[in-house]
Amino acid sequence: MSLHLHGVVRARHRLPDDSPFRLVGLEDLAVVVSDRGEERALTEQEAVAHLSALCALLPGGPVLPMRIGTTAVDEAAARAAVHALVLSTLRDHLSQLDGMAEMHVRLVFEEGAALRAVHDKGTLTGGGGDLASTIAQGERIAREIEWWRRNQADVLLAPIAEMARAVALLDSSDHTEEHRAFVVRLDEAETVRAAVSALGTSDNITSSCIGPLPAFHFFDLATQRGNQSTSRWGW
Question: Is the pTM of this model over 0.85?
Fold first, then answer.
């Protein structure tokens, strides 16, 4: 039976009693695996369960998740896949992430408030009556809203950024939405959650927080693009 590869941990990592995973040792490291059933794409429910089980590994030590859907034909192939990621790099990343976790914060600003802020700057004035001018003005408004949103988020999230080891801007699905990832100490995760929840008491902001997650946004092991990493959580 082939294997799903879920992540890399230290060989002494403690698995939860109810974990669906097992460890395949590789020197002082181990790859977290589970048996792979029929060959098919994961359902959304299975993907959520996978992430929940992966997050449950955090109390046992740092975790470097692998992209969902990574597989190997057997344990030897699983070890080879981890070797290809360079063991010294993996050890370094695990050391950096000891006692750390990733928190995802999402702020959604009320569109009316954003438009009023842009209007006060004069962005909504002028423009011709033809279609091209209307489209161009709409694009300018969107850029102004994104700039306003970014600056608002900088101020609101400053206390969280101060306690974070690293911060990354994540893709947002809407021009009124700010999405960021923070690497913080695992024991500060609830402090971050409380701070984000407090931001949502404003009539103009909806806030949400996901985590703690294995801090993987900042170490893209598949593409090694340095500071230009992308989150594999899909949120």
Answer: no
